[in-house]
Amino acid sequence: xxxxxxxxxxxxxxxxxxxxxxxxxxxxxxVSFTVEAGETLGLVGESGCGKSTTAxxxxxxxxxxxxxxxxxDQDIAALPEPAxxxxxxxxxMVFQDPSDSLNPRLTVADAIGEPLALHFQLxxxxxxxxxxxxxxxxxxxxxxxxxxxxxxxxxxQQRVGVARALACEPELLILDEPTSALDVSVRGMVIRLLExxxxxxxxxxxxxxxxxxxxxxxxxRVAVMYLGAIVEIGPTDRIFSSPSHPYTEALLAAVPxxxxxxxxxxxxxAGEVSSLVDLPKGCFFFARCPVxxxxxxxxxxxxxxxxxxxxxxxxxxxxERAAV
Amino acid sequence: xxxxxxxxxxxxxxxxxxxxxxxVVFIVARMLPGDPVHLLAPRDADAQTLAVIRxxxxxxKPILAQFARYLTDIGRGEFGRAIHTGNPVLVDIANRFPATxxxxxxxxxxxxxxxxxxxxxxxxxxxxxxxHVSRLTSLLGVSMPSFWLALLxxxxxxxxxxxxxxxxxxxxxxxxxxxxxxxxxxxxxxxxDLAGFATVVHYLLLPVIxxxxxxxAPLTRLTRASMIEVLGSDYVRYALAAGVPRRVVQFRxxxxxxxxxxxxxxxxxxxxxxxxxxxxxxxxxxxxLGLWAVTAATQSDYAPVQAFALFAATTKxxxxxxxxxxxxxxxxxxxx
Amino acid sequence: MRRYYTAYLFRRNPLSIVGLAIVVLxxxxxxxxxxxxxxxPMQPISGNASRPPSAAHxxxxxxxxxxxxxxxxxxxxxxxxxxxxxxAIAILIGVLLGALSGFAGGMTDDLIMRxxxxxxxxxxxxxxxxxxxxxxxxxxxxxxxxxxxxxxxYARLVRAQMLSVKESxxxxxxxxxxxxWWRMVFRHLVxxxxxxxxxxxxxNAGLALLLAASLSFIGLGVRLPTPEWGLxxxxxxxxxxxxxxxxxxxxxxxxxxxxxxxxxxxxxxxDIFDPKQR
Lengths: 324, 336, 278
Known about the structure:
Chain B is 75% helix and 0% strand. With 336 residues, chain B is mainly alpha-helical. The radius of gyration of chain B is 24 Å and the shape is globular.
């Protein structure tokens, strides 16, 4: 059984328009995927594609309108807060902006000690020992214990954020753009830390990023999102070497190439992202697609199998196979 | 059309606030410790009278029924009787309001006439001697107890310099100009009584100055700050760079924009003017609403206190509304 | 930063140190009052009424023959306690109500905000007068009334802070970690909403003192023979027109100085917490 199974996740928001009317914004439109124990799934896409909304639904900062979030044999998608609270330990999150994700009035020890107090019955000595252990695990020194967040560098702050999440002993850790607020030099160190933790603890990650080079480096599988839906999902090397969806191709083409002489062979996108308020009837990518045909405007595109563990939502690139 | 929609929206909002105001007064009068009968009945009433009053006022009914009755009473303009004067509350208010109005209008006008130019000049000659003086006095002004300030003025101008009359009301005993508006300055002029007018002004002098002084500090401060901000803005610098004479920039271009913030402050001051009038009227034995309410309050005569509080709150709410409308009319940037 | 607070304060706004000094001075006077007085502050001395300042009576005597210097010193206890206590109570009510309003949102928020609107529709001085007239004048009542007219300021400040703190990532993190709502509110949200409260508290202490003294001045506050500055000023008000200035002037000066101290301190704090205000 998969560690995490997400099925048909939908989420809408009400937005106020200028005229005082309410309109519905369709943020997630049926997101499904699974994560196996020990693997790292990357979630990529441009801003506004629903990566962060997905993350916030997974840790139930948001309550999805429809769909299921199975963690083991428990569906947490619609659980009310009191029933949810003991289960929160199993799914933790590392936030994007380390300077905002730590309570400025708690010391490092308080911040890391809090989940210990909430979820484990430990004596004071045991707790201190555990805090020390966690600090060492994320590469912080014992002397950092009594510091306040503003006395730490931004990289150290993010290490505290990781330690705090690890204190819960989670089965799954959601990393919501954990490096995008960091300098390039610090970024590498945090990525290395995450890799080391995965190796030593066997922990499972959902890694959300728009930085494709990092995703390629760290993830086993990648899911590409567009307009609140997954348009392609598969093993990392397959996605990067032979993408099946035109959007994925375009996304990969947009990655800066360090060699100025190298020619770009893949298309660069034109056109505007379609509105989340006014969803396209057919393929979500229709408005910007370089290979579209008229039928795309009216035919919705579900994910189709494009290879072993590889699916893409394009009937032009992935012709339906004959029934096996 | 747009203006109309805004005004009607604001007027709609007025209802709930006024309802809330009435509720607050009701709660204060009825639900705080102590039997409201004692507040509303004469102090020496015996048990039987109290029982009669209780039934008469509906105080034996459930609290919501009492509230409903209270609302209808207010709707019909029945505010009860002021025990210390023996008159219906509304009659007293009608009689005494002109005295308060005259005092507060003049006090505020004087305050505006001094504070705004002072604030503007302080800003134009920033860090000059006038700026330092005005900043220091503003600083001292906000900390000054108004009653103490008024007493110091009386001591100096009445006792020592003999420039002001004694703090004993609106004129010498027996002075009573023919009543038209109830405001003595206007009534004496209408009667063509110049000597009377001079007396009225003489008696108004200290109370008006006191009222002006206690309101000056915040207005001067804000005008200065607002003017400094505008003078530092890009469009003012641009105008200077384009060669528009400094005077013109400062007093035409900048001043107009700098006066928006002080208008709000004036609205706030007007809204709270009755609060300051209470103190000043008490000190100068000024026969206005404030003194009337204080006298009632110290004699456990609650009907006038209640009516005065309602009156003050309603005034404040209406003044704030007018300020917003004025702002809306003046500032083209505001769109609702 | 906290450790260098005082130095920082001094560099930015030297007047705020003067303010702090004044407030501390009055606090010391209030504590040490029994050591500082020269006469019994509540004992009239017969045949000694309305004497001007002298070697025996530094600030003179009042109309009842009580020593004004001793009364001014003793009154510091009442005025400072009323100012501090009423601000403390106002902060307590305001923080709880504002936090509730901002955290709960929706109907609760609307209801609380409309109630505050209605209450703030009254000029604060007149609301205070009306309530004291209803509940009766005693020192605890004065403290509560002054607190009651001032708490809406804190409630609004805390609510505004709460609305932004609630959206911070550390608030979200606290929820994901499994904090129950009450722990969220009191450990993660409220402590981070208190910044502007300190500034307002200091500025407000001066206002509270003025309000309490004004109530006593018009005869709706503390009663004789208890020494209270506003009451003492009103005792001398009638004699002032005959030139007996000292009865009103000294206690009035005490109010002025104390309020000035709170205001200077508050201005300095405001400067530090919000440098844009300058």
